[in-house]
Design a protein that fits this description.
Structural class: alpha/beta
Radius of gyration: 19 Å
CATH class: Alpha Beta
Distance between the termini: 45 Å
Oligomer: single chain
CATH architecture: 3-Layer(aba) Sandwich
Number of strands: 7
Strand order of the largest sheet: 1-7-6-2-5-3-4
Shape: globular
Order of helices and strands: HHEEHEHEHEHEHEH
Largest sheet: 7 strands, mixed
Strand content: 5-15%
Length: about 270
C-alpha cells in the first residue's frame, strides 16, 4: 500500500479539524467584533484570534525583520498565495493596519462580515469607473493617517509564482508620501492550497527594507518605478517563478500575460 493511501485518512481527519477550528474561531471572532465599539479594539481581538487559529491548526507563524516596519503610517505590499494569507497578516501585523481587498470577498459568508468590522476597504477589479472611485476612497483613508495592506497581484495563481502588480498600492504611497514596505509570505500555499485540503506546517512572514517616496511626487514615473522596485525585491526574496515578463507588468488588468520566466537571484 502506498504512503499516500496510508496518509489519506490522517489528512482527511486533519482537514476536518482545521475547518472546525476555523469556523469556531471565526464565529467567536465575529461575536467579539460585533460587541467591541472601537476599531483598534476589534483589530487587536482579530489579531489574537488569528494567532489562536494558527496555533490550533498546527501552523506556527514566525515573523522576520520586524524592524523594517515604521512606527508611523505606511503601506505594506505582499505576495498572495492562499486564502489564508489575510489571517496570517492579521496575526503578524500591529492592529493599526487595514486591508485593501477585492470586492468579491465582501460577498463571502463570515469572511465578508469580519472584514467589514475590521475596517477593510473593498475595491473593484473589473469595472474601471468603480475601480477609480474605490482608489480615491483608499487614498482619502490613507491621507487621514491610516496604514493599509495590499496584495498587489489582486488574486493568487494556481501554481507558485509572482503575477503582475496592480498600481493602487503604489499610487497611494506616492500620493501620501508614506513608506512602502514590501513583504513576503511563505508556506501558506502548502497550508491551504487553491484546491485540496489544508495541511499543517510552518508559515513565515518576512518584512523587507522599506521604500520612501517623495510626498506628492510630480514625476510621472514615480509610481511605475516604485512598483517595479518593490516587485523586484519581493520576487528575489520569494524565490518563485516570475509569471509575467517584465514588459507585462504595465498591462491593463485582465489582459493576457506573456511567457513565464524564472526569477533570477542576485
Amino acid at each position: 500500500m502506498s504512503r499516500t493511501l496510508l496518509l489519506a485518512p490522517l489528512r482527511a481527519l486533519y482537514g476536518f479539524w482545521a475547518i472546525t477550528a476555523f469556523l469556531a474561531v471565526g464565529l467567536s471572532t465575529l461575536g467579539l467584533l460585533i460587541v467591541l465599539p472601537r476599531l483598534r479594539q476589534r483589530r487587536s481581538a482579530a489579531r489574537a484570534m488569528a494567532r489562536a487559529f494558527l496555533a490550533l491548526a498546527g501552523m506556527p507563524l514566525s515573523v522576520r525583520s520586524q524592524e523594517h516596519l515604521p512606527q508611523g503610517q505606511c503601506v505594506v505590499v505582499c505576495n498572495h498565495a492562499s486564502y489564508i494569507d489575510g489571517i496570517v497578516l492579521t496575526a503578524a501585523l500591529p492592529p493599526n493596519f487595514g486591508f485593501v481587498i477585492k470586492r468579491e470577498m465582501a460577498a463571502v459568508p463570515l469572511a465578508g462580515a469580519l472584514l467589514r468590522r475590521l475596517g477593510s476597504q473593498f475595491v473593484e477589479r473589473f469595472d474601471r469607473h468603480r475601480s477609480a472611485a474605490d482608489a480615491r476612497r483608499v487614498l482619502r483613508n490613507a491621507s487621514a493617517g491610516h496604514s493599509v495592506v495590499f496584495f498587489p497581484e489582486g488574486t493568487f495563481p494556481p501554481t507558485p509564482g509572482l503575477m503582475k502588480f496592480h498600481p493602487g498600492a503604489f499610487v497611494t504611497a506616492v500620493r501620501v508620501g508614506c513608506p512602502l514596505v514590501p513583504a513576503v509570505v511563505r508556506g501558506t500555499r502548502r497550508a491551504l492550497p487553491p484546491k485540496g485540503l489544508p495541511l499543517p506546517g510552518p508559515i513565515e512572514f518576512e518584512l523587507l527594507p522599506p521604500f520612501t517616496p517623495a510626498a506628492g511626487s510630480e514625476d510621472p514615473q514615480a509610481v511605475p518605478k516604485l512598483r517595479e522596485a518593490a516587485r523586484n525585491v519581493i520576487l528575489a526574496a520569494l524565490g518563485e517563478p516570475d509569471l509575467t515578463c517584465s514588459g507585462d507588468i504595465d498591462r491593463p488588468p485582465d489582459t493576457a500575460p506573456g511567457r513565464s520566466v524564472r526569477a533570477s537571484r542576485p
